[in-house]
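Batch manifest, entry 17 of 40.
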Amino acid sequence: MMQLSNTIGIIGAGPIGLIVAIELCKKGYSKDLFIFEEHELIGRPVHCAGLISNRCFNIFRYSSDLDYVQNKVRGAIFYSPLKAKELVVEREQTQAFVIDREIYDRTLAEIVESEGVRIYRKCRIEDVVESGEGYKLYSTKGQSFRVKILVNAEGARYLILRKVGLKSPDNKFLLTAIQYELNNVKNIDQDYVEIFTGNLWAPGFFAWLIPLDEKRARIGLATCRRPAIKYLNHLILKHPMLKDRVNNSKITKVLAGRVVISGPLSKCTARNFIAVGDAGGFCKPTTGGGLYYGGLSAKLAAKMIDTTITSEDYTKIPSFDRMWRRLFGKEIVYMRILRDIVFNLNDLELEEMFSLARELSISDIASKIGDIDYQSNVVKELVGCCFRGMVFKKIIFWNILYRMFLGIFDHFGELCRLIRI
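Output type: structure tokens
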């Protein structure tokens, strides 16, 4: 057994695990840090659509080398499910970046390794056992390691999480995602992401077109039904806003993975153990985007580990759960309620919601105060707008209101916990 006593082990060299490592290196732990990655090449396979907010880009930009930036967008076009009605949310300035995740991950890995941190590639950890003050780790190749603190950044696999006795997200919040990268796509506006709503196209979620340049785009979806590829092919061949634009396109890449919309787990810590990123459910419940809140969880984990080691008080690690709730817990609850409302509407209700949104000029409101990462302000404003617009006679208003109260009831325990914090 390789003895790594008094060390920090990170399972997973995706962006979140690497951000934990970078933040720990800043605090002087590079010699005590080891990363275990199941794949040989960092960044492969890619499991991400590669769209991040302006805020996320700036917070987690650790290098002046920006080769991973492929495009910048300033707005989004939403299409209703049945009549393809458009809602446009836009600003004059850049709102999000399209990135090449393989290059981004590789850039982070180079930073970590330049600090002297060792990344064990092709080292898939299959078992974790408590041992003394830490953990013994066993790989599929028969290797074994010992660490004192373990950070789980394994992604949406949840094997390690269950090994330490923590509960993984409910399967209904783990969606299957698939994405094509295509050349020769017609009529691309590089400034806008396109969102295709409705169960007809992507049951339980939505589909997207992310522009890379004037001819190339990523088109994908996530869904609660399988096979996801059937729905993606149906979208491309049949959607009125896509079919004539991709009829001569060529698929150059196919990406697949999981989209996590549960939000953070109720408990992300065990003895000397912290789950971050997708492994801890740190994704937006409305979009599945994981880099922003996953990155914040990585920063908090590094801070918590530093505090623990400095004080020599390992009982502090569970405080990580209070830290993230204090920082963005209320925002997560708002997004969970919004998720429960929108993704439970049928296509006729969604169509009516688009009509209502156009009637109330919701696009203008969202363009002014909308925020990709913090969605509660726009939700509050939209509810107020409905009341001010006197839309009580519309059935969709009462459907949304009913689901909103159901969402509040479902998440009442979490809201009470946040009030106590």
